[in-house]
């Protein structure tokens, strides 16, 4: 079934439901002197390259590889189109390793044909904070698929993570592998229903006309919560306190410090947006909502080429009801011309999805840990982690 994954320290299907296995690392760290010092062998026509994502030229090459070859929906109508600014942000968190931004080039013409990345993160699993790699942007050029290149990329990123003395990883995928810690559902809230229907992202409901649909998804022109504003640098300490306290309730969540919050939440134009509620009387920061920008290329439509999507990121409500906070997030996303607002059923998102007219999508997102066993799968609502 899984010739590669069977050999890896991940939860195996044969162990499903075996509650006698201990929770924690599956295999112990090996002494650093025993970590392989040379890269894995590639087929002879290809060579490894470490991608300097601060270089405009390299960033362009990665952008173009992903733009043409990265994730599509199951009917190949849309393909993720991460922007260059987004990729630079996603790959340069505090403490990042350049060596974890890994490319494969064709020796003949130096064309970039495959990619995989890791970034360091502290992830709390129940009561333990574990230093991990978050692995993302695994991509093999369409013309080189099914040649078992992906396992080589995964082994090479694993080796380079081991070189830095880290032994665990977290990753997500749309496909089922051994073995998800949880499976989440994508939900979608139409902001521009006419365009979504025109491009085949959504369909006109039964007994619905276009004008009734537009009316159904209409939103107020301005936000409703007094003190709702964009996050600023001076808010980092308060946002960190709120977020740390909020995330402490989930079984798996990032352990963010102020540096992480500054990097991951401070607004960056067309990359990440964070809003908060500052109490007009006390000036306390009581609530946060955030989303990141990930457009998709619309494949083969005459009238539209880009779908502008916002993805719910980290939201915390202590005073403003979460429903009202997220309604304000929808309003600002609409003001900023997003076509759709997407969210997973993680954290407390279930509590607003239906009420705010999100509908379930046809996609799921499976979450995985490498070399860390959980005794049983989590509910999506027990997960406090969003990967980009
Ligand atoms: S998920 C997005 C992944 N990328 C895409 O879907 C883009 C479009 N597809 C492609 O580029 C987010 C190719 O189809 C890829 C596979 C490259 C996906 N994760 O080369 P072969 C991430 O980036 C297994 C893991 O022939 P291919 C997270 C598959 O099960 N494994 O296939 C990435 C099979 O193994 P098996 C995946 O189609 C997390 C083998 O690859 C996978 O030409 C990575 C087939 O390889 C996926 N998404 O290329 C793991 N898709 O055992 C990180 C397929 O079943 C682990 N496979 O025979 C942690 C590492 C760090 C540890 C540190 C201690
Ligand atoms: C993570 N770092 O399938 C990378 N998206 O539902 C890996 N469907 O957009 C992630 N098929 O349901 C990989 N419209 C997993 C995601 C891969 C991309 C993917 C799904 C998620 C998606 C859309 C379009 C479907 C087009 C045909 C979808 C329905 C929307 C409708 C709006 C109105 C209310 C009901 C739902």
Explain this structure.
By secondary structure, the protein is an alpha+beta fold. The chain has 2 domains: 5-172, Gcn5-related N-acetyltransferase (GNAT) (Aminopeptidase, 3-Layer(aba) Sandwich), CATH 3.40.630; 183-382, 3-Layer(aba) Sandwich (Aminopeptidase). 23% of the residues lie in helices and 27% in strands. The chain contains 9 helices and 17 strands. The protein has helices at 56-69, 84-91, 149-163, 193-198, 210-216, 236-247, 258-265, 322-335, 350-353; strands spanning 46-50, 78-80, 101-106, 112-125, 128-140, 168-173, 182-190, 228-230, 252-254, 272-278, 285-293, 296-298, 306-307, 309-312, 316-317, 340-344, 359-370. The strands form 2 sheets. Strands 1, 3, 4, 5, 6, 7, 8, 9, 10, 11, 14, 15, 16 and 17 form a 14-stranded mixed beta sheet that branches. A 3-stranded antiparallel beta sheet has the order 2-12-13, covered by helices on one side. A hairpin with a 7-residue loop joins strand 12 and strand 13 (306-307). The longest helix has 15 residues, at 149-163. The protein is globular and about 60 Å long. The two termini are 28 Å apart. 36% of the residues are buried. The model has no long low-confidence stretch (mean pLDDT 98). Residues 2-5, 69-71, 133, 135-140, 145-151, 154, 157-158, 161, 167-169, 171-173, 175, 177, 370-371 line the site of 2-oxopentadecyl-CoA. The site of 2-oxopentadecyl-CoA has 35 residues, from strand 5, helix 3 and strand 6.
């Amino acid at each position: 079934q899984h010739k590669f994954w069977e050999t890896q320290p991940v939860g195996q299907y044969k162990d499903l439901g075996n509650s006698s296995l201990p929770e924690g690392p599956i295999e112990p760290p090996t002494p650093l002197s025993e970590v392989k010092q040379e890269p894995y062998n590639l087929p002879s026509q290809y060579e490894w390259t470490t991608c300097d994502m601060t270089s405009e030229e390299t960033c362009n090459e990665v952008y173009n590889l992903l733009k043409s070859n990265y994730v599509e929906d199951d009917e190949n109508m849309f393909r993720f189109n991460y922007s260059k600014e987004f990729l630079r942000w996603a790959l340069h968190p505090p403490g990042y390793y350049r060596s974890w931004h890994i490319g494969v080039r064709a020796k003949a013409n130096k064309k970039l044909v495959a990619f995989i990345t890791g970034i360091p993160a502290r992830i709390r699993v129940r009561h333990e904070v574990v230093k991990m790699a978050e692995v993302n942007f695994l991509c093999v050029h369409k013309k080189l698929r099914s040649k078992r290149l992906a396992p080589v990329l995964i082994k090479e990123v694993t080796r380079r993570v081991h070189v830095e003395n880290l032994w665990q990883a977290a990753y997500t995928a749309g496909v089922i592998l051994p073995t998800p810690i949880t499976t989440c559902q994508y939900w979608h809230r139409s902001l521009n229903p006419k365009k979504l229907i025109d491009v085949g992202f959504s369909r006109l409901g039964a007994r619905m006309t276009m004008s009734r649909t537009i009316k159904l998804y209409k939103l107020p022109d301005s936000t409703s919560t007094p003190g709702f504003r964009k996050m600023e640098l001076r808010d980092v300490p308060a946002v960190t306190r709120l977020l740390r306290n909020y995330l402490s309730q989930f079984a798996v969540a990032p352990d963010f410090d102020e540096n992480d919050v500054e990097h991951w939440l401070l607004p960056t134009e067309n990359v990440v947006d964070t809003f908060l509620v500052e109490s007009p009387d006390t000036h306390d920061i009581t609530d946060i909502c955030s989303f990141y920008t990930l457009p998709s290329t619309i494949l083969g439509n005459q009238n539209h080429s880009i779908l502008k999507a916002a993805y719910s990121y980290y939201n915390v409500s202590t005073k403003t009801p979460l429903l009202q906070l997220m309604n304000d997030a929808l309003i600002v996303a609409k003001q900023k011309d997003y076509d759709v607002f997407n969210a997973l059923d993680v954290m407390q998102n279930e509590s607003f999805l239906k009420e705010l007219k999100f509908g379930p999508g046809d996609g799921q997102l499976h979450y995985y840990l490498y070399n860390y066993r959980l005794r049983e799968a989590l509910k999506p609502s027990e997960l406090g982690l969003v990967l980009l």
